[in-house]
Design brief:
Layout (H helix, E strand, L loop, with lengths): L4 H10 L8 E3 L11 E7 L2 E6 L5 E7 L4 E2 L10 E4 L3 E7 H6 L1 H25 L4 H16 E4 L2 E4 L5 H8 L3 H13 L3 E3 L5 E4 L21
Antiparallel strand pairs: 1-7, 2-5, 2-7, 3-4, 3-6, 8-9, 9-11, 10-11
Length: 220
């Protein structure tokens, strides 16, 4: 499991001579990207995307607590980070990271999480049936951002039907129809805060594409 926000802050402050400043962004704000640097999330969720020449936005993935992101990891000319909730971030320059083996060792697993998520999204996009793409995306989100609630798992990331449609290459109308069908069949429910709750019996700890350890986000 990722460390708590407090643990991240204490760990990061250990690496610098003076207190490192935290950066806060409100839900919906665009997070400025740092040239030759990366952000690490202490608290909150961030959507990563690109903008196509026609003006449409394409999803690249999501980042949660402990995870890192930055334009220095991408070839894309248009790289956008948007706060999906109120977020708290810390910034590191590449010079700092290269000068600190301990910091590099702590950040590397979080970069690995981002790369694994990117490969998972690519694998999902390659499935032919839209129903399969939706099921595998929900399974991935369960592993990445799920909170266990007895016989169900609550997705702490709240996505619109358009967000899900963009992730699996379909229309918002189709996503609305398929989620309604899954809800009717008892596969999922929605809490009062509009978060999806997946029934564990239907979204088990393995899938046609992925395999995860029961208690971690690491592949078995």
């Amino acid at each position: 499991m990722a460390p708590t926000s407090r643990a991240i802050i204490e760990t990061n402050q250990h690496h610098v001579d003076s207190e490192r400043h935290l950066h806060f962004y409100q839900k919906g704000e665009t997070i400025p990207l740092v040239s030759q640097g990366i952000w690490q999330i202490c608290q909150g969720l961030v959507r990563l995307s690109t903008v196509y020449p026609v003006g449409e936005e394409g999803l690249l993935g999501w980042a949660g607590p402990s995870m890192c992101f930055g334009s220095c990891f991408s070839y894309l000319q248009t790289y956008r980070a948007t706060a999906l909730s109120d977020v708290c971030l810390m910034c590191y320059t590449m010079i700092e990271i290269e000068a600190s083996p301990k910091l590099t060792q702590e950040l590397l697993p979080q970069l690995g999480r981002r790369f694994r998520q990117t490969e998972a999204l690519l694998a999902i996009a390659g499935q032919r049936r839209v129903e399969d793409r939706l099921h595998q995306l929900l399974f991935l989100l369960k592993q990445e951002f799920g909170q266990c609630l007895g016989d169900g798992t609550r997705l702490n990331i709240r996505l619109t039907h358009q967000d899900i449609a963009a992730a699996i290459g379909t229309t918002r109308v189709t996503v609305t129809r398929l989620l309604g069908k899954l809800k009717q069949q008892g596969w999922l429910s929605i809490d009062k805060y509009r978060h999806l709750i997946l029934r564990n019996e239907n979204f088990a700890n393995s899938s046609d594409l992925f395999g995860f350890d029961r208690n971690t986000n690491h592949k078995t």
